[in-house]
Amino acid sequence: MSIEATIEKLKELKLNAMAAVLEAQVGDPAYESLSFEERLDILVECEWLTKRMRKARSVAKGTGIEQVEACVENIKYFDDRRLDKELVSELSTCDFAREHRNVLITGSVGSGKTYIASALGMKAAECGFEVRYIRMAQLALELDSARLNGTLKDVMRKYLTVELLILDEWLLTPLDEDNTRIVYEIIAGRSGKASTIVCSCFEPVDWPGHMGDTAVAGVVYEKLCKDAYALPIACEGSMRERRRLYMSPRFKV
């Protein structure tokens, strides 16, 4: 059977990604040094990734998660990250969401916090949980707008009732007093009833200093940290840079 015929049969089987990659391999000297198993692995991997991305986009619809390709299985455990693999595995069961416990992911800018939170969010969505992801700067703008147009109760209800709320870039921009109080109402209302994943560059003990009303901020800190899972990322280097260095389509943060 000719390569052309094989490509057509792959298309008939709706293995379009495999067909496209096989077509690209034909006559490309870059693939000549690879073994049959290596070339087959590339074909299967591309088809698998294509189908997974299609499913991921469907699962992520309405969650606000941008990194829909995020996958718990692709989290990297480099030594300098000192990432707790056992804890990540435990969190991937989504029992934390069933138990209404929070997850606090901390680390420097570029350490991969968003990817891990997104991967856990995607896993939770696949398990049937209602998930909502938002950056804190976006949330602050949404709250400011809601106060002006009289829809604050509706906006607050949206974040109070969702089963898993992911708050990214937590306190990267300090909250003013008004939004600190509103965030307090959301966090307090969720405590013991729903789960929240927080991604922050700051250690939890420093959070109150980045919120406008320090008395209320202390309560927010206590509500978020009570019975929470702590997932620190130790490395100072950027996982984005490391991804570029690896130059691999399989490499994920």
Attribute tags:
2 domains; Rossmann fold; single chain; 5-stranded parallel sheet; 253 residues
Give an account of the 3D structure.
It is a single chain. By secondary structure, the protein is of the alpha/beta class. The protein folds into two domains: 3-60, no CATH class; 72-237, Rossmann fold (3-Layer(aba) Sandwich), CATH 3.40.50. It is 51% helix and 9% strand. It is built from eleven helices and five strands; from the N terminus they run H-H-H-H-H-E-H-E-H-H-E-H-E-H-E-H. It has helices spanning 3-12, 16-25, 36-60, 85-91, 95-98, 113-126, 136-149, 152-161, 177-190, 214-225, 239-246, and strands at residues 103-106, 131-135, 164-168, 195-200, 229-232. A five-stranded parallel beta sheet has the order 2-3-4-1-5. The protein is elongated. The protein starts with a helix and ends in a 7-residue tail after the last helix.
